[in-house]
Automatic annotation (TrEMBL), chain A:
Residues 5-62 form the SKP1 component POZ domain. This is SKP1-like protein. It comes from Centaurea solstitialis (yellow star-thistle). Residues 98-145 form the SKP1 component dimerisation domain. The keyword Repressor does not apply. It holds the Pfam family Skp1_POZ. SMART domains: Skp1 (SM00512).
TrEMBL record, chain B:
This is F-box domain-containing protein. It comes from the Eukaryota. InterPro entries: F-box-assoc_dom_typ1, F-box-assoc_interact_dom, F-box-like_dom_sf, F-box_dom, SCF_F-box_component. Residues 39-62 are annotated as: Disordered. Residues 278-324 form the F-box domain. NCBIfam families: F_box_assoc_1.
């Protein structure tokens, strides 16, 4: 039986090949293959090439199902930087790969859980649009959490 | 006697009056605002052309005013919708179902119309305004969907959903599409996703929803698909019956959505979308953000409400909290405070609460919507009691008003509590009640009115084995020792909470030396009363069905080969689970009756209910509360808010 190959295209127009039976772990790709056989290139306009390379590395894993959980954990642990993980999570969201998405999000949550507010804003590039008064009100209400 | 009658009818009357008041208010608001919204949108339709001329003359003033007016109207309607939905949830607005629905429908239509105008350039929202408006739209969508959900779940074959329900469902689809089309894809996907996941469970759609969805799926396939969306409801395929559709939609919808989401991404050119740029400071998609936040524990979650407004709105979204909240078991401990225990994570967390540094015995009387009702008891020249509301997730507390006579010299054994229909019932006897024929009273605290009332009751004297009663089918049940009985036999006291009449019920017939009285507990199993008795190395569960007790389950804990330790506390949780707290070896054993297996959780050694000295003294053993199961929520207190909790 010959293995079919699919081609994925990242945001910066780089092409990646992947075998079909591995690619269909992504629910989105599975649906597309079902619909039109997906003979052409599948464009992923929101995923950059570095992230897509990671996703493909993940999809290409050769793991027994029972070791899968550990593998996903290790996989995201090795790439423990928040921006990378967020990109990965977004790509996993677009491609609908639940395990990868959950693992990436869990890792991010794990990293930021002890951060101060400023550190969180910096790490996730979030603008502070709260006034000091509003912040103080929440601080007062939930003193135990700070 | 007259006094007594007054005390009974008074709260009822008041409740009725309040009901009537609220209903009038509801009717008035929905119909008048409905007229206003409807009329103004009609007016715009009529005067559509002059407006267009105006904007061509770059009359910024009028378009600014118009924009302001619409965004205000949207805000107003959103809060009204919230009010309507809340009232429906409490079941106040059943008679005005149709008015409520048509108001919601009109509002949704109004929004769709305006969004279309926005895209045509007749109406320009500024960027800041747009973001605000979108937040409003998002929440009003949630409320509308909730309203619809309420209707659909309450409908049955006997009372099919109204036509208005179908219209509203269709309009909500339009709404999703309009948001998607005119404000940018991220918003549309978010709202629609919420909608569809919520409605998959109900699985009832009207046929008209299909063309709308289909056109939504098709539209992005056309690269130049920026023409206004048009699907007439005339295209409604009448041949589809609701049953067929619901089945189809049930399974397909979510898969389909993810596909649509991706296809959409291909054709939508993000860089050219100006609106998208202005929202760029929220880099993380909501789905990712929700997933990240859902992994956090309560402490960082509450802290991160300060990160940004958006994070706060995500965290305080009731649906978000509902999706992440877990069942937890609260373990009160007399000496060291409160602990929350989650079997899933095998983690036992210490909670903080006020008064914890004073020596109090803590009992959980009940829980509603994630809020626990605690009574703290202190023995100091008599019994002092403090009632507090406590939310373990937010750690918020509120002290309830004191009992009319907070400190009295009652015997501590003769106090009991119960919780039902939003009322706390406390029962106490004077020490000499055995000898006197004085009337017995109980105090009732209504959470709604936040006040205590006194009612006469017919209790004879009992020593309660556990303080907190089990509420089932309109009756509160306690295990107690009857005083009149010379044998001191264990029996069950039953209180009819409407009439406040007490009765006694026989406990299962066992020989008295088989069990230790304070290891016998009441609980419920499949809606029946059940009772568990500890044996040498296990326990039996008796269930009362058709007014007969029968032994239905027997559970052996093999590691208690040489007999159970004295300090063992048994609690019957829901779904046939029994929690055994072993204070000697500091572990919690969770037994699953139906599946017949048990789990053991080791805990830190400070989880003790009583000190050794106290424990040896029989009368203190049962004064400390039993573990209690609750579901986390962000529910708040306050007189008005509590009314909606029920």
């Amino acid at each position: 039986m010959s293995k079919k190959t699919l081609t994925l295209m990242s945001k910066d127009k780089q092409l990646f090949n992947i075998e079909e039976h591995l690619a269909v772990q992504s629910v989105t790709i599975r649906n597309m293959v079902k619909e039109d056989g997906a003979s052409s290139v599948i464009p992923l306009p929101r995923v950059d090439s570095e992230t897509l390379a990671l996703v493909i590395e993940y999809l290409n894993r050769q793991q027994a199902p029972e070791e899968d959980e550990d593998y996903v954990k290790k996989f995201v642990d090795e790439r423990g930087e928040i921006p990378t993980l967020l990109e990965l999570a977004q790509a996993a969201l677009d491609l609908d790969i639940k395990k990868l998405m959950d693992a990436a999000c869990m890792k991010v949550a794990d990293l930021i859980k002890d951060f101060t507010l400023e550190e969180v804003r910096e790490a996730l590039r979030i603008e502070n649009d709260r006034t000091p008064e509003e912040e103080k009100a929440i601080r007062d209400e939930f003193q135990w959490a700070f | 006697m007259a006094l007594k009658e007054q005390s009974i009818t008074h709260p009822q009357e008041r409740r009725e009056k309040l009901n009537a008041l609220q209903q009038t208010l509801l009717k008035w608001t929905s119909s008048s605002v409905y007229n206003k919204v409807y009329k103004s949108s009609a007016r715009r339709k009529k005067h559509g052309e002059p407006y267009e001329d105006d904007s061509n003359h770059e009359d910024n003033g009028s378009s600014f005013l118009e924009q302001k007016r619409i965004s205000n109207l949207i805000k107003l309607s959103t809060s009204l919708l919230k009010f309507i939905t809340d009232s429906r949830t409490v079941g106040r607005a059943n008679e005005h179902q149709e008015t409520c629905l048509s108001f919601t429908r009109q509002y949704v239509e109004f929004v769709v119309l305006n969004l279309r105008q926005h895209s045509h350039g007749q109406l320009e929202f500024s960027k800041e305004n747009l973001k605000e408006t979108f937040l409003c739209l998002k929440s009003s969508f949630t409320y509308a969907a909730k309203l619809l959900n309420l209707d659909l779940t309450s409908s049955s074959e006997a009372s099919p959903p109204l036509i208005e329900d179908h219209n509203l469902a269709n309009n909500l689809f339009d709404f999703v599409i309009s948001v998607e089309e005119y404000l940018g894809s991220r918003y549309g996907v978010h709202t629609s996703y919420c909608f569809c996941t919520r409605h998959r469970r109900v699985g009832q759609f009207e046929a008209g929803g299909l063309p709308a969805l289909a056109s939504w799926g098709m539209r992005p396939l056309k690269p130049g698909g920026l023409q206004p969306w048009r699907v007439g409801h005339t295209a409604k395929p009448a041949a589809f019956t609701m049953e067929v559709l619901s089945e189809v939609l049930h399974g397909v919808l979510v898969d389909w959505l993810s596909a649509i989401r991706l296809i959409y991404g291909f054709w939508f050119d993000y860089s050219s979308d100006q609106i998208h740029d202005s929202m760029e400071n929220t880099i993380i998609p909501d789905d990712v953000l929700c997933n990240i936040l859902s992994q956090l524990s309560a402490k960082p979650l509450m802290r991160f409400r300060c990160v940004s407004k958006h994070w706060n709105s995500v965290i305080t979204d009731p649906y978000f909290i509902k999706s992440i909240s877990h069942r937890r078991i609260l373990i009160p401990s007399g000496l060291t405070g409160l602990y929350a225990f989650n079997p899933k994570y095998q983690k036992i967390v210490k909670l903080t609460y006020p008064f914890e540094n004073q020596i109090h015995k803590c009992n959980v009387i009940g829980t509603l919507n994630g809020i626990l009702l605690l009574v703290l008891e202190k023995y100091f020249y008599g019994l002092r009691r403090i009632f507090i509301l406590y939310n373990p997730l937010t750690r918020a507390t509120e002290k309830l008003p004191d009992l009319p006579h907070p400190c009295c010299h009652w015997d501590v054994m003769r106090c009991a509590y119960g919780f039902c229909h939003g009322n706390i019932i406390t029962i106490k006897y004077p020490c000499d009640c055995h000898f006197s024929s004085r009337d017995k009273y109980c105090n009732i605290f209504s959470l709604k009115n936040s006040s205590w009332t006194v009612q006469k009751t017919t209790f004879t004297c009992y020593d309660f084995v556990h303080r907190v009663g089990i509420f089932l089918n309109g009756f509160l049940h306690w295990v107690a020792f009857g005083y009149d009985d010379l044998d001191n036999l264990l029996e069950i006291v039953v209180l009819d909470v409407t009439e406040m009449v007490a009765m006694r019920m026989d406990a299962p017939r066992l020989t008295i030396d088989c069990y230790n009285a304070h290891t016998s507990v009441l609980g419920t199993l499949h809606g029946c009363l059940c009772m568990s008795f500890m044996w040498r190395n296990g326990f039996d569960v008796w269930v009362k069905e058709h007014s007969e007790w029968s032994k239905q389950y027997s559970f052996v804990l093999p590691f208690y080969r040489y007999g159970c330790p004295n300090r063992l506390d048994v609690t019957i949780l829901e779904d046939g689970r029994i929690l055994v707290k072993d204070e000697v070896s500091n572990q919690i054993i969770l037994c699953h009756l139906f599946e017949h297996y048990y789990e053991i959780f080791k805990c830190a050694n400070e989880i003790r209910v009583t000190s050794r000295m106290e424990y040896d003294e029989y009368r203190y053993t049962h004064l400390v509360g039993k573990p209690f199961e609750y579901v986390e929520s962000l529910a708040m207190f306050g007189k008005n808010k509590l009314a909606y909790i029920e």
